[in-house]
Structure formats: C-alpha cells, structure tokens
Amino acid sequence: MSIFEYNGSALIAMVGKNCFAIASDRRLGVQLQTIATDFQRIYKIHDKVFLGLSGLATDAQTLYQRLMFRHKLYQLREERDMKPETFASLVSAILYEKRFGPYFCQPVIAGLGDEDKPFICTMDSIGAKELAKDFVVAGTASESLYGACEAMFKPDMEPEELFEIVSQALLSSVDRDCLSGWGGHIYVVTPTEVRERILKGRMD
Amino acid sequence: MECVFGLVGNGFAIVVADTSAVHSILVHKSNEDKIMVLDSHKLIAASGEPGDRVHFTEYIQKNVALYQFRNGIPLTTAAAANFTRGELATALRKNPYSVNILMAGYDKEIGPSLYYIDYIATLHKVDKGAFGYGSYFSLSMMDRHFHSGMSLEEAIDLVDKCIIEIRSRLVVAPPNFVIKIVDKDGAREYAWRESIKDASVVSA
C-alpha cells in the first residue's frame, strides 16, 4: 500500500459565484482499521483562506503547523492577511524544500482574493501547482471525485446550490472508496460569512 | 503482541496495558508496567520497541517535569500531547521512535481527555483508543458498549469485557493486564488483572 493511502482522505474545493466551497471526509484510519470519525482535514488560515491537506496525517499536521507559523509571521511583518495566491506559492515553496525527502501530502488551497474573487488550487507532494477555474480534488478518492465533480459542476452557482453540489459529489465519491468517508465536513465561504456544516453519509 | 487500550468516562480516563515483556518466543517477565505516570494528573500508556518505549516515555516525563520547574505550573494534557507529537515528528525522518502512545490526563477546567499518538506522530483526541493486535477486539468491544459519560463501574466492566475478549480470541494473548486511572484526585494504579502469577523466587 502506498504511503499516501496509509490514512485515507478525500478533499474537494469548488468555485461558485463570488464564493467557494471546500469539503473533506472525516475518517482517520491506519490502513484497514478506522481510528476516528471526526478527524479535521481543513484548516482556516485566515477568514478568507482555507487549506485542506490530504495524504499522510502526521505530515498534514506538521505542514499545517509550519504554514500557520509562517502566516502568523507574515501577519506581524506585513500587518495584513496573505492573499490566497501568495499562500499557494508559500505552500509550493515549502513542499519543494523537501524535494528529496518530501511531505506525503497533497494540499488543496481555497480562498477569496482581490475583490473577493474566488481562488482554488491544488498541488502534488513536491509543490507542482495546479490552478483551476472550476474545481480541484485530492485524496484516495480523487478519481471518483473528478468524475462526480465534472458531472455535477455548473459555473456561477450561488452558495446554497454550491453546497448541495459539493456535498453530493463528496458523499457519492467516498462511498466508492473504502479508505475515506464516515461523513463530511464542508465550509461554504462568501465575502460576508463562513458556513461550516457536518454531513452525515454512509457510516462505513 | 502488546495490547494497549483506553477510554474516557465521567470525570475520569482509564488506560489498560498488558504486562508481558517478550523477546521473540521468550517471555522475559509478565509484570512489566507499561503505563508511566507522567505527572500528578497524566498517564502515558506506551507500546512498541521496549528500548524506545522506556527511553522515549522517560524523556517526555523529564521534560514535562522541567516545564513545571521552570514555569511553576504544570502542562495541560493537550500541551503535553502536542509536545510528545512534536518530539516524535522531529525524530521521524532522522532517528524514528517505534512507540505508540495513549496519553490520558485530567485538567481542572477541561476534565478528562485521551490522546492517540501513533509512532509516526499522528495526533488525535479520542474518547476511546487502542493499539496492537488486541485493538481489533478491544475497539470493537468498545464500539458496542461505550457511551459518553460512563460511570467507573460501567467503564471497568467494559475494560474487563475487552480483556476477556483479547484473552479468548488472540492467539498469543498476554496473560496479565494493568489498569490505571486518572481523575480529579490524580493518576494512580487501579487494579491488575492477572491470570498467571510470576513464580516467586525460591529462597536459598
């Protein structure tokens, strides 16, 4: 089994009309055994930038701590929050630093940039950025997620519809993957508010 | 094979560990205490390589004591767990420790808590956790009978059910177990469950 599949994970980020949604599954496993069903994979860097980390859980936790540290230093120096594009470049640089001994994570970054324009991107474990205009996916269920998102995506969705689409795409994809699932955790972010919701799916 | 498990009850946390020290096919001793009292209100139940287990838990214990000497107040359970994870994560890509840890503690404002820390430094706060081959039996038993806010009698009953299950279903089941508890009155040994007593030394 690959090291990326040791803990199991599923992540989606999708763009809507002046908003975005980022969602993850909730399972923490050790290969075939499930340890917890309330594991957090999505972290808030600041009000308008969210980071999801799939892959090896220990590296996701270490990476989150390092990135939070860098962002807090940035806030102290620049007296403002990082733009999502800048944050993505930071993540990419930090991952490439470990080119020959990498963190076994695939991050998904979602945020509202200048003029609250939604921004999403993903990258591989050594920091190769992949910008997208519609959706990005990561994790053990990524192939199913690509299919579900491609089928269900429409441009310029309102937050409520975006929430429905992302939830359905996530839940149907993780049902085809034994290493991810046990519910979902979704954030729908607009310029004025962040709505966090827990989804109940097939608990198996 | 080493069996460690634990759960959180109403105002207390319990951890249980087997007490066999095994080297290949030989049982060196069957009253080895694998649950270290970290400080007045914390317990560490550790399983893994015997040298690493003793060395690493003693290192954590001394550093927790040092913090208390330097700062005049004890660490919270969450802080101690995060410190432990940090030490494991730093050593992971240099000189890894093969130790799995369940850290149980009681804090005055927060109450009891249990932290699952993998040997690759995956940290998660849980209500019930287990390591080793015994986890296949004890986790299932706890999934069936655990509910939040169990009384001490109910929890000990569940612990005994788990021990019976391990003894009857695991092929190289350890004969003896030690149960330790932490609550507002501190961390202490609760009971032993012995099915084989070490033969007493014959006097000359």
From TrEMBL, chain A:
Keywords: Cytoplasm, Nucleus, Proteasome. It is found in: Cytoplasm; Nucleus. One of its GO terms (cellular component) is proteasome core complex, beta-subunit complex. It comes from the Eukaryota. Its main location: cytoplasm. The keyword Glycoprotein does not apply. GO terms for biological process: proteasome-mediated ubiquitin-dependent protein catabolic process. Non-catalytic component of the proteasome, a multicatalytic proteinase complex which is characterized by its ability to cleave peptides with Arg, Phe, Tyr, Leu, and Glu adjacent to the leaving group at neutral or slightly basic pH. The proteasome has an ATP-dependent proteolytic activity. Component of the 20S core complex of the 26S proteasome. The 26S proteasome is composed of a core protease (CP), known as the 20S proteasome, capped at one or both ends by the 19S regulatory particle (RP/PA700). The 20S proteasome core is composed of 28 subunits that are arranged in four stacked rings, resulting in a barrel-shaped structure. The two end rings are each formed by seven alpha subunits, and the two central rings are each formed by seven beta subunits. The catalytic chamber with the active sites is on the inside of the barrel. Belongs to the peptidase T1B family. This is Proteasome subunit beta. It comes from Trapa natans (Water chestnut).
TrEMBL record, chain B:
One of its GO terms (cellular component) is nucleus. Keywords: Cytoplasm, Nucleus, Proteasome. Its main location: cytoplasm. CDD domains: proteasome_beta_type_2. The keyword Glycosyltransferase does not apply. InterPro entries: Ntn_hydrolases_N, Proteasome_alpha, Proteasome_beta2, Proteasome_sua/b, Proteasome_suB-type. GO terms for biological process: proteasomal protein catabolic process. It is found in: Cytoplasm; Nucleus. Transmembrane segments: none annotated. Signal peptide: none annotated. Belongs to the peptidase T1B family. Non-catalytic component of the proteasome, a multicatalytic proteinase complex which is characterized by its ability to cleave peptides with Arg, Phe, Tyr, Leu, and Glu adjacent to the leaving group at neutral or slightly basic pH. The proteasome has an ATP-dependent proteolytic activity. Component of the proteasome, a multicatalytic proteinase complex which is characterized by its ability to cleave peptides with Arg, Phe, Tyr, Leu, and Glu adjacent to the leaving group at neutral or slightly basic pH. The proteasome has an ATP-dependent proteolytic activity. Component of the proteasome complex. This is Proteasome subunit beta.
